[in-house]
Every structure is written in structure tokens, then in C-alpha cells.
Task: structure prediction
Amino acid sequence: MSVALVVGGATGIGAQAVRALRDRGDDVILVDINEHAGVALCEEPARGRATFVLEDVSVVDGATRSVDAALAWADGRLDTVFFNAGRLDARPLAQWTPELWDNALALNLRAPFFVVQRAAAALVASTVGRVIITASTGAFRGHAGMPAYHASKAGVIGLVRVLADELGPDGVTVNALCPGWIETPFNDTYWQHQADAVAMASALDSTIPLRRQGTPADVTGTVLFLASEASQYITGTSIVIDGGYTAV
Amino acid sequence: MTAVLVVGGASGIGTAVVRGFRQKGADVTLVDIDRPTGVALCAEVGPGTARFIECNLGTAEGVTDAVDAALVSTGGLLDVVFYNAGRPDARPLADWTVDLWDRTRALNLRSPFLVAQRMADVLAKSAHGRIIVTSSTGAFRSHSGMGAYHASKAGRLGLVRALADACAIAASKCTGWSLAA
Result:
């Protein structure tokens, strides 16, 4: 049994990961700004226990308090940090302000760093210390209108390399997940930014070798694998889960 | 029960994978050039079954014969192909001959393509068809004296992308993966 801190998991990929981790018996601390969905998720019956913590990790104090709350709940033990919070902002180039840029980067890039910084000592103390940060195939490709998203997701790829080097000597692995098109409300901003979303969605499916967008359940197998002893020699890298989207 | 074809597994990573699949109860067919070691590995006691087929993957006929023999032994059904065979030849630049280059490329790049080509229809019938090809971090970095190795390992990354597209179009199930081992 392990203890996992999931940051950003009231819906979508994170919620499915919370369910999968609990189903295998892990205890989960879920941090999110969506209290209603988060509490409901933690109240679902499962093998592992779960608790919800309401924090905004885009504020550094919120990131720090999240880790502290997790450690307090789990008696100081922490084996897995799955940082899955993120935001996708879409605007024409001229409408981007420094504030919007800073807010996006604060959540997508600064927050995972400070969460891991705060959790590092506990992860080192674990025999299976694992950090998993959700990046995106958006780290390798870019779309008009979403500069902060693509820049920050590419930044996560660099961040996991640094953290892997920093924590590797102490046995903690750090990796990035790169989901491709996963059907969740997270993508609504992207589709609302497109002129003809229906036609584009249909065209998108035809460019993916597996001919469909993914579901959150398509990602959980990799999360469970990375958050296990089986992945002990994988660190500092990125795993793409995209139905072949970036291969072609 | 999952039926697995391991191509190149009489030692190292392939051996561990053969044992790992059998621990999960899979039926494993091991194809390798090293008969004594391969036979001994398949004779180990395990939850899953295993059999050995000797072959030379350096020739197109050798690949075809091995794949056909594997299919006969599994009743024409396979779920997973793990292509792990490879050779890391090292020589000073001037000592490389066309013959050595061709032999390295035949095993490291042509053979996995031919195996995948031959197996595509079989894997498409599986509910979870999988092709896994061992590449290498040598696909991203290189060393003096090993041009054919690095070129072929980088080539495998391109190969799995093409197979991922081709196999998915045919079957919508078969996934192509490359291990950077």
C-alpha cells in the first residue's frame, strides 16, 4: 500500500487516476480548487482511503500547504506525487497580458516545482518515491492562441529532467506524462477557440492512428505503472499516451 | 491466455522478458540463434508455457521461416510480438565493409520490419495486438566505430511510427512501441 498526493484531480485524467490508485489500495490525498467534485470523488467507495484538500497551488503558499496537509493526514508518509493540475488559456496574440501569462505559468510550471520541493524529503524517505507530472503532447507541438500552455508544457519536460537528476541519487524517480487528445472538459477552451470545432474534431480523429481521442482511463495504466516498483529504472523522461498522434 | 513471440531472448533483456511473461501465465515462443541457451530457458519451470525456435534473422528467408514456425506452434494466434534481437558491431571507420554494414542492418532494421509485416494480420485479430521493438538510447546518442548500430537503432524509432500508422489503419488495435533500452 502506498500514499499518493494527487494535485488536480477532481475531474478528467486526475479523477480517473484517483479511482485507479484507490482501487489498488493506495491512500490518496486529492488537492483541487473544485471542492464539490473533489469531495464527491473522495466519498466514492474504494479499497484505499481518500481525503480532499481545498487549495489553489498556483499560489506558492497553497502548494506548500497542500503538501503539509497530505503529510499530516498520512502520518508523514508519501510515496507518490502526481501533479496533474493545469490550465489551457486561448486568446489571439494581441490579447495576451502579462497577468494572464503569469497566472498560466504559475499553475502549469511553478506549482509542480514547489510541490515537489516541499515533498522531496518525504519522497526520499519512501522506498518507492515517485513524481509524475502531467505535461502534454503540446510540449512537442503548438497551436495558435495558446503560447503559455505550450511553453509551460515544454517546460515540464525540462523540469522533470532537472528533478530526476536532483532526486535520483536518493532513489526518487521523476517523469512526465504526455497525454495527447483526451476527451475531457479541459479541452473546451481549445475547441471554443476554433472557427469550426465540429469539423475540426472529426478531421482530428482521422489523423490519429488509433482513430479516436483518448479517455481518462487510457492514461491510468501508465500512472499506475509509474507509481509502482515496476518503473524503478525509468526517470527523467516523458511517456507519450496519444494513440499515435505525434508519431505521424 | 496471452500468446507472445519474443524474437531475440536467449540472454539479457529478452531472457528477463521471457521469464516475466511466463510469470504472468503467458504462452511464449522464443526465436533466437542460440539453441542451447534458448532451449534451456524454455525448459525452466514456470506458470506459462514456452518453446524455442532456432533461426537466423539475418536473411529474409530465415525471418519468414521463423515466423511461420512460430505461428504453427501457436495455432496461428498471437497477441504480442517483442522484437529484441540486435547486434552492436564496433570497428574503426576505415575497417567497415559493405558486407558488415549490410549484415548489421539486416538484423537490426530489416528483420523487425519483416516480422511486423508478416504478423500484422495475425495481431489485428487479437483483442490487444502489440508490437514492441527494442531500440536504444543509442538512437539519441552515438559512439565512434558503431555507425551501423546507431543508424539502425534510430531507424527503429522511425519504423515503429510507420508501423503504428499502418497497423492502426488496418486494425485499429495494433500498437507499435519502441523501447529505448
Chain A is about 45% helix and 15% strand. The first strand of chain A starts at residue 3 and ends at 7. The two ends of chain A are 39 Å apart (CA to CA).
